[in-house]
Amino acid sequence: MAQRKFLTLTEVNNLMSAARNKQTGIRDSCLILLAFRHGFRISELLNLRYHDLEMIEGRINIRRLKNGFSTVHPLMSDECKAIMEWNQVRAQWKPAVDPQIVFISQRGTQLSRGQAWRIIRQAGELAGTATHTHPHMLRHACGYELAERGTDTRLIQDYLGHRNIRHTVRYTASNAARFVGMWERNGLVIKDLLINNQVKDETIGAKLFLILKRKIRFCNALY
């Protein structure tokens, strides 16, 4: 069986809760929240600068890599709270790099990709996630969760910065909720299957046969 490439919303929440129990938990849970909420690639997130954050306006500037579309996302209140908590801890770690870099190590250096991978893998282990957790699963989790909420495919494409919509349709293709109500909206539900608001005991095939039989008799009567 192929390994699942994304996390569910419940798993993301469990990941953040598990991360907070570590010594570096405030930083790690903030990193996970931003990675998920904005569908960051890990390199994009590690290059996040404070001038990308407009806390008062409630905006975050997303600078996409891999020739993706850069854009501006809303910054939610829980994110602002997580960032402010992290800022208090970060100040104690005495940054030794560009002061604009948001995520740093306890030594004050910019977090590396390897360190970020370990943070998320260890959080997954603590949370008891059934799959091997890695950073890109949070980007996929963002796409799948937006699709699950019925978000338009083009809007998801813009949100994740995809230049080619083929990279986006993977999220909507597995969303069964988009088909809910389709039969009703198009008048394709066979009302004859319901009699006095109760379904008869016959199988669906038998019901269809009886409906067609009645319609044939009606047509024969006309001629």
UniProtKB/TrEMBL annotation:
<dbReference type="GO" id="GO:0015074">
    <property type="term" value="P:DNA integration"/>
</dbReference>
<comment type="similarity">
    <text>Belongs to the 'phage' integrase family.</text>
</comment>
<dbReference type="GO" id="GO:0006310">
    <property type="term" value="P:DNA recombination"/>
</dbReference>
<dbReference type="InterPro" id="IPR013762">
    <property type="entry name" value="Integrase-like_cat_sf"/>
</dbReference>
<dbReference type="InterPro" id="IPR050090">
    <property type="entry name" value="Tyrosine_recombinase_XerCD"/>
</dbReference>
<feature type="domain" description="Tyr recombinase">
    <location>
        <begin position="2"/>
        <end position="184"/>
    </location>
</feature>
<protein>
    <submittedName>
        <fullName>Tyrosine-type recombinase/integrase</fullName>
    </submittedName>
</protein>
<dbReference type="Pfam" id="PF00589">
    <property type="entry name" value="Phage_integrase"/>
</dbReference>
<keyword id="KW-1029">Fimbrium biogenesis</keyword>
<keyword id="KW-0804">Transcription</keyword>
<dbReference type="GO" id="GO:0003677">
    <property type="term" value="F:DNA binding"/>
</dbReference>
<keyword id="KW-0229">DNA integration</keyword>
<keyword id="KW-0233">DNA recombination</keyword>
<dbReference type="InterPro" id="IPR011010">
    <property type="entry name" value="DNA_brk_join_enz"/>
</dbReference>
<dbReference type="InterPro" id="IPR002104">
    <property type="entry name" value="Integrase_catalytic"/>
</dbReference>
<keyword id="KW-0805">Transcription regulation</keyword>
